[in-house]
## 1
Amino acid sequence: MSEVDLVKEAPEAGNRERPTVFLFRCQAPTDLICPCGRVARRLKRAGVTYETRRVAFSRRHRPEIVELTGQSAVPVLVDGDQVVHDSRRILEYVGREFGTR
């Protein structure tokens, strides 16, 4: 049995504390108008505790994002050692890791 199987079978798996999740996102004031908001809504629906980090509006002023992903687009999700960028890939990741679609 792999470590992943053990975690899924453990009764307390849902209550385990996960590493802190960070969502790097744009400056949009609402969750309704951009892909960043779509990711934030999905995280909330999944019950994921996460920290939002707003980045500069201008892509050329996002060195932290370039360092993480090699590009300047947001959203970017950091979950422990996992760095996922592109909103569709993040939504797939959230569904797979936190059990929501």
## 2
Amino acid sequence: MITKHLFRTVSIFLLAGVAFAGCNSSHRSTAEPATYANPLPVALGDPFVLSASDGKYYMYGTGGVEKGFGAYSSDNLIDWHYEGQVYSGDNPDSWTLKNYWAPEVYEKEGKYYMFFSADWKVNPTNELENFRIGVAVADSPTGPFTEVSDKPLFDPGYPIIDANILQHNDKTYLYYSRCCYKNPVESEVADWARAENLFDEIEESWVYGVEISSDFTNVIGEPVLLLQPPSRMSDPQTEWESRSVTSGEVNRRWTEGSFAFDHDDKIYMMYSANFFGGQNYAVGYAVAGQPLGPFTKAQNNPVLEKNSTSGGEVTGTGHNMMVRSKDGKKMYTVYHGRTEKTGDERVVFIDEMKIDENGLLTVDGPSTTEKEL
């Protein structure tokens, strides 16, 4: 059984070295053009950027600290300063035990709320994957964040990760991914894998959505299944969403790392597919008229994938989010990936993304050449 902690190679000492060597460099002159080249000098997985009311950006992600999360700050999305550890789990008052993943921070009425995934201490059946979603709060984007409850936000009865929040028409929605663990699914892809003597079964992760209270303390109603891997081989999404299976890499298909946002009266949901520890991790998107769907996957998926097959050096591109420039004129996607130089280390990339007049979303990446932000 494959779990993320087996593939997390981020070292505290390496991350600290990256931070002080790259992120704490001398401040960029305002007269200089805002240019950069990927990857950024930040070694994190599952990056999330908060555009805060104090005029700064704050980045959070998986890795870099023991049993918790650190944070970075920036004035320009290019130069990042390491702020240290901002949340610590596995203490007597915490519901968490290990495997701290995918933090996202939201500002609301002067407070900062962190949604994150972790292993739940309550595990009477000794499940190998016992992940749930929790919420922590702080008075500052640099913490310290303290859990709002001694238990997860809710328990759907199966392991869940990758929380994402959407505020829409005075309502709040939580999106999350049900883990592949103990979720075998019959499909034409599973039939094909058996016929090829690759795998006996294929497990899948699915994206759900549910309304939650405005104070982030409880769910309202029942979760709704929104996205899952395609079941038919003829589906145009099957090829790119099944590469980890068809390559013989692993017996799982993922739909995870969702990020939803409003645009032109539509809900865009970006998501990642394939094995997060491999080269085929990639990003697609789906569109809906309402926060709880139904969502329709885009014909131009994937919009972000490895470029190593076309002369580039980037692989494992995924778990992205969207952040706007301070003037609101540009959209950027922030994601993690790997290069030949970084090896198995997940590092942060940022590239511009656009949505044209026909609603087509595209990403100018993955890029490694110098360009203006």
## 3
Amino acid sequence: MATCKVTFTLDQATVTRLEEAALRLTRPKSQVVREAILEYYERIGRLSERERLSLLGAFDSLVPRIPARDASEVEREIRSVRRSRRLGGRRSS
């Protein structure tokens, strides 16, 4: 794989994390950066764990609020709504 040199400006905390990661993984910093970018790139368009948990929490709080009704009752309500729409909705006097 051909490589090319690039220059980035990073804050000190990020540089420290990069150095620590390279030491812990016993890999060159450039390899750690390449792998991190690849991993980040593959996650584009996917939910983060925080977003996933937030959506699951919303789902878990909303589902119990869905009224438990008989299917025939729901069908009656839908027919009623459709009937009123066909009649033109509200009419002013």
## 4
Amino acid sequence: MKTKNLVPIFIGILMGVFCPKANACTGITLTSADGTTIVARTIEWGGTNLNSMYVVVPRGHTTQSYTPSGVDGMMFTARHGYVGFAVEQQEFITEGLNERGLSAGLFYFPHYGEYVPYNPNNKHNTISDFQLVSYILGECATIEEVKEAVANIDIVNIDPRSSTVHWRFIDASGHQVVLEIVNRQAHFYDNPLGVFTNSPGFEWQLTNLNNYVNLYPGSAPAQNLHGMYLSPFSYGSGLLGLPGDFTAPSRFVRAAFFQSSAPQQPTAEGTVRQCFQILNCFDIPIGVEFGLDEVPVYDMLTATQWTTATDMQHRKIYFRTMYNPIIQCIDLNSINFRKAKYQATHFDSVKQQPIKELKIEN
């Protein structure tokens, strides 16, 4: 592949460097009363429309990875069929679910990760970070298989200027881990909490929760402080001090508290709806990420371009977009991954949120 053909790729990937305001994804995990685990996340990108699409990948589909020198990296063939959500190009799947019930997702991790340097002599065993989700979904069924697969490959940036990323993986049993590559070493962390955002590292985010030990759901009790009577203005005063900005540490804290205080739903479908409602709180309106001397993107409603919820046990992946708030579902059980053809379909044919006018009878 000629170098000039890599330009569209860089437009998408390098936004993580030149538009740090954009990379603000938030992930949560809820479990229904019937034992179904639902993992959900947002994907934010404030710079431009990501032209996202869903991709159906059948068993036996072969892909070759991009490297800094072109499309000459590792060849990998899907043992398991999967459905993924791609950004900018159909090869760059950032979230997905395979037919074995393994979910995988990519989150930006700027300034804290460091991959191994690209070695052209090992390019046939090298994969780009933006294609690791595809490789894992096609190759693995369990977390142990994910760890083994990662141990045997080199993961690199297509362009050394672009941001690093980190990943979260969940298998059908509900076992969830985080993968971060720091100081050129891959580190897996168990994630029983099920919350995930961006930088700093995952262990730091967990430690930072201790700064909010005073928070609790509900209302703070009234107090008589040396003759001065104090009472809360309204409900929810137990969460006074909960950070409300859009930085990754603040979103991690909010997600942890919203998730932990959410009443358990009886069914998987009810839990899916609950995930979308919680993640409404993390939608980033266009404008707050731009300075006074910057021009916002006027053809986008929000930096939160799409939101997903994944049911690994029932093999269903749900999503909605900034242009279509209706929750849509892809049921992997309805796809014959042995016979299905590879396909990539853009999310929204109309880039405008619909408005329905109600007719009132006189």
